[in-house]
Amino acid sequence: MPAYKAPLRDTRFLLNEVLDFPAHYQRLVNGSDATPDMVDAILGECAKFSEEVLSPLNQQGDEQGCTWDQGEVRTPKGFKEAYAAYVAGGWQGLSHPVEYGGQGLPMSLGLLKSEMMATANWSFTMYPGLSLGAMNTLMQHGSEAQKQAYLTPLTEGRWTGTMCLTEPQCGTDLGQVKTRAEANADGSYALTGTKIFISSGEHDLAENIVHIVLARLPDAPKGTRGISLFIVPKFLANPDGSLGARNGVSCGSLEHKMGIHGNATCVMNFDGATGFLIGPANKGLECMFTFMNTARIGTALQGLAHAELSYQGALAYALERRSMRALSGTKEPTQIADALIHHGDVRRMLLTQKAIAEGGRALIYLASQHADKMIEGLLKNDDRQYQHWDDQLGFLTPILKGCLTELGLEAANLGMQVFGGHGYIQEHGMEQIVRDARISTLYEGTTGIQALDLLGRKVLMMSKGKAVFEFTKPIARFALELLKNEPAMRLRALTLLKIVAQWNYLTLRLAFAASRQRDIVSTACHDFLMYSGYATLAWAWAQQEAVARRKLREGGSESADFYKAKLATSDFYFQRLLPRAKGHASAMLKPVKSTMQLDQAHFAFE
Amino acid sequence: MPAYKAPLRDTRFLLNEVLDFPAHYQRLVNGSDATPDMVDAILGECAKFSEEVLSPLNQQGDEQGCTWDQGEVRTPKGFKEAYAAYVAGGWQGLSHPVEYGGQGLPMSLGLLKSEMMATANWSFTMYPGLSLGAMNTLMQHGSEAQKQAYLTPLTEGRWTGTMCLTEPQCGTDLGQVKTRAEANADGSYALTGTKIFISSGEHDLAENIVHIVLARLPDAPKGTRGISLFIVPKFLANPDGSLGARNGVSCGSLEHKMGIHGNATCVMNFDGATGFLIGPANKGLECMFTFMNTARIGTALQGLAHAELSYQGALAYALERRSMRALSGTKEPTQIADALIHHGDVRRMLLTQKAIAEGGRALIYLASQHADKMIEGLLKNDDRQYQHWDDQLGFLTPILKGCLTELGLEAANLGMQVFGGHGYIQEHGMEQIVRDARISTLYEGTTGIQALDLLGRKVLMMSKGKAVFEFTKPIARFALELLKNEPAMRLRALTLLKIVAQWNYLTLRLAFAASRQRDIVSTACHDFLMYSGYATLAWAWAQQEAVARRKLREGGSESADFYKAKLATSDFYFQRLLPRAKGHASAMLKPVKSTMQLDQAHFAFE
């Protein structure tokens, strides 16, 4: 398993040189504490914790997995101590309100923290990650008493949380949820049903676990409009905050799965478990979806995380392993053969990983700024601000969750590929990254669901195509500035303008076609999603290149090599990866018939 | 784990309607026994064995894996009995000479057999599969005495074989092989060294194992020209064929790997093991490569196998699992939701798998005809015939091994994706297919090596681009016939002609560029390989479509639905998958610089 090294130079480049986080934080109402010094100190501490505590537990977490015994779940060796250190470091409440035990820093800092920890050890980071989902739901929809009782111990990390949505018969289609909630005399509810795929559903890291559960009231309407949201703690909380009786919720078994073995994926049985309604009755799905965008950005992170870790492993191997001679002539005459990195096809793989990781990082950081501004809108009760940034983030989210996890999986596979046959062997850890990455395109909404969310919901239904227009405006503006001020990037600017025009054109064509034939949304959405991803990454790379060129022109920097590497990687992205968008642009406009005509009975013959 | 059902209708379509195997066999000197009735009987028996014996062992083989104890290796439960049944059925010698215990049928029948068994249980099928490599090497390079001693028990399946190439320091770069072979007084050699990644290196299926080993004589030249080939049996053979003394070769350990758990991947230690030279001294690599094309077609098969099995699993799930309503309106009003197959994006995934599996099958069968004709050239001592078909097969091989395994892995991943979160759970068996498929792009030459072999060796070095011209001639001829005789396929014909022109144009451009800058071969080869794969699949689909259209026009067939499904799948391929070739065509011509310019020290910064 590659030892994780936090890419702090790249993080600082994006924060300070490309996206101007210092100015961004100065402008935020809750950003005054996020001074450059403070941010830098947090990054340094987080890198240290990720590299020294979490990274060494990653491979053994996979090997040992979690074990179930009579409903109790034991996490892999070292996880408990690491979680205690995590809590002691105050990491869980970084971006949550001071009045509930947090540090009140902007949301984006929480995401920066998550990036490093997640890259070092995804399975571990899912435990506090799921808590965030529960915390955010409580924060926005819980009563003040509920916040006091549950949000504070969650923010402090003493308790952890889960999101209990999926049932055996439904995941995507939550209207099929069957878990029942019946009113008790005291105003609480008794929940009965089975939830599956509950990440971090049971474990030995914390004294209590707060489940946020989707269930149905006895008189609820059918389908999605009859789902309510409940708090179901593992141990009921006494009024003084101490733990009370064990509640009727238990882990029936652990799933045996392809990867993320260090995280417990639980079947959770609710046997008349006591629950407390959060938010209005029958509005559970709406409440749940409020923070969906930020939760999905948290999963998009997985694309970045696995691309980065696999890149670090593959790069080290490519520098060290020697095989054959370079095509253009011997590069290391004193060695028995040249290092892999001298071979063009190995460089193609490494640069693809690098372009995905660094391009994805830029987009995740951009999204985190959007999230900061959206949350500021909430804090200031500024509905227009909230709505504007929620829309921006809402457009970017399925692109990142959908496309970045697909590309992250590709990058993880390329890292294995650089190792040749050794990549298939467990001890090197490269195949673990692929197995861990494989879940990212499945949970928190599959790639297909992201694609439908983007094209069907965000682009066509909610905005009649205007979302693409709004999103591409700053890209066009940026490209026009490049044309004016950066002659060396003239071709890049023209490429970006072409993408802006094509993206809007494709959207109009699809909107028109969908008005006559609704199915085109489902036959075109995957290609539209991937096209959008490559287009957005092109923007991210052009931005990085523009800054690097300016810095190089200004001269005198110790980082000249770093900037030149940005130029080279941008070059690779535009020349070698962006062309894939052509295929997607072409495929998405094809007749619906080519996908829909085959009768379901005729997909196979004996 | 999906239960395997042999797709006999598709196999018969390709054999009898598209590729006219009956006429092909009639023309072959060793084809007279392969009458249509005989072929059909073999297919039926093989389907039965694959479905009833091998398929049920596939998942438990993964769960149990192989175990090592003091050098002995135990295969998963049931493998031993299945192998005995395989031997009793005479399957191993199907396509090998009668005089060495085989049935003397054409090579292609052996490949058809392997396809079904491999799809049902890849890990099992690797045991007899590796024997084939040893058998083919012995047949072409062994002395008559060696053939009598080793080839006969291998052909009968009483013994199995391996290919011992890789060592810890080298896999691709076999010039680095260190295993030493020192002459004994009796004309044999004593081999000392360590080989790794030896598939089927040790097991409990057969009484003896014949290792074909690459090693270096004491006075051998450095590099690839100093490698010789040796037979090293686990038990030495007595003159009467009975087993003699245990030889000094043993399994040091088993590798822990991502998948193919049912197959033993061994570290093999040679401690002065007795070996016998095959072929001329220092010509071992050349001998080894003689049958490389057919061995690689055997691995290309894995792309087809995993695409097919994953498709079968995903299709069954898509017909049964219900989620949401179709975009164009409710399809199953009496159900709680519509089956997955009514959703466009699920159909996209299924049709991608289907197009890969059935298109890949057509190409594998075509390659098997080439192999028959090449081998006939050998049998008839017709050097021109041998050379011609060796060239044709040599061009097709890296395309199939390289591109079809990449697409097979994609198809396996799509099958998991259709299952949503359930795809990640081991019990469904879909993730096993992905883990098993993952090795296929790594062993028997990585995808990068196939790409270099295709563009660098076969296209540019050996033929100066003429290989593409030769290979595309029948495609152009076919397209021109379509234009004349099949008005409904006018657009397909024009697309094919455009591909032929573009493929040749790209080759010329690359040849010209490579004459000035050798590195372009390594920066362009991956895109060239994938482009070639999509182009070749387009040909395969157009051929199938043309036959299906003719049959439908002739009317009266019970198979009308089958032919219509071919039309629909061809439509999908041309409209939705072939556009990917655009991106590859564009990327391969990009300046070398975009891949080669970044200094190796600047791939990462702290």
UniProtKB/TrEMBL annotation, chains A, B:
Q: Which GO terms describe its molecular function?
A: flavin adenine dinucleotide binding; oxidoreductase activity, acting on the CH-CH group of donors
UniProt superkingdom: Bacteria
Q: Does the keyword Oxidoreductase apply?
A: yes
Tell me the cofactors it needs: FAD
Enzyme class per UniProt: oxidoreductase
InterPro entries registered for this protein in UniProt: Acyl-CoA_dh-like_C_dom, Acyl-CoA_Oxase/DH_mid-dom, Acyl-CoA_Oxase/DH_mid-dom_sf, AcylCo_DH-like_C, AcylCo_DH/oxidase_C, AcylCoA_DH/ox_N, AcylCoA_DH/ox_N_sf, AcylCoA_DH/oxidase_NM_dom_sf
The Acyl-CoA oxidase/dehydrogenase middle domain extends over 163-271
Where is each Acetyl-CoA dehydrogenase-like C-terminal domain found?
A: 488-599
The record's Pfam families line, in alphabetical order, gives: Acyl-CoA_dh_1 (PF00441), Acyl-CoA_dh_C (PF12806), Acyl-CoA_dh_M (PF02770), Acyl-CoA_dh_N (PF02771)
Task: Could you list this entry's UniProt keywords, alphabetically sorted.
Answer: FAD, Flavoprotein, Oxidoreductase
- Annotated Acyl-CoA dehydrogenase/oxidase C-terminal domain ranges read 282-453
Q: What is its EC number?
A: 1.3.99.41
The task this protein performs is described as: Involved in the assimilation of dimethylsulphoniopropionate (DMSP), an important compound in the fixation of carbon in marine phytoplankton, by mediating the conversion of 3-(methylthio)propanoyl-CoA (MMPA-CoA) to 3-(methylthio)acryloyl-CoA (MTA-CoA).
* Family of the protein in this entry: Belongs to the acyl-CoA dehydrogenase family.
The protein's name is 3-methylmercaptopropionyl-CoA dehydrogenase
Species this chain originates from: Pseudomonas fluvialis
